[in-house]
Amino acid sequence: MTGRRTPRPAAAAALAGSLLLTGCGIKTTGVIESGHAAKVAVPDGGGATVYYVSKDGEHLVPTPFGFQGYTISPAILVRLLMDGPKGRAQEAGLTTQLPRMPEGKTDGFSSTPYSPEGGITLRVPFPVAGLSQLARQQLVCTVAVSSVKDVVSPVTVQGTDTTLPSADCRPRS
Known about the structure:
By secondary structure, the protein is of the alpha+beta class. The chain has helices spanning 9-23, 74-83, 87-91, 133-146; strands at 46-53, 60-68, 110-111, 120-123, 155-158.
């Protein structure tokens, strides 16, 4: 025997831990401020926000649409949703979960004027009972946010088969 002792497991763990902590060469620092979260600037003064479905199909993406100084009717916005995204929104992989508008069909869309008590009722020329939750939110959010400046209105969607309960825009992000 040479007289060497084997270290106890607890002592060996403490020795290894202290070597790891002192051997890496990284010094401790204080809190580093990184600033505020990023913000997206959307032009004010008209136009609209159309809500398309993300590339992964899991949440809504607000997409500015229109021109400053012009208000776009809910019926036109819903037609835009049904046609799906174009240009940069399409290139980014955004989609719609609403049905396509049949060729040549241009009528059947209407909406009530906004009222503080009831919000807005949107009438669409297609069945709404079978729409996915994201498709329903596409309709509700686009109309709720774009119809009345600085107001997020509750929206009731009335289809050819049923009327959905009034809903607020609460997109999952």
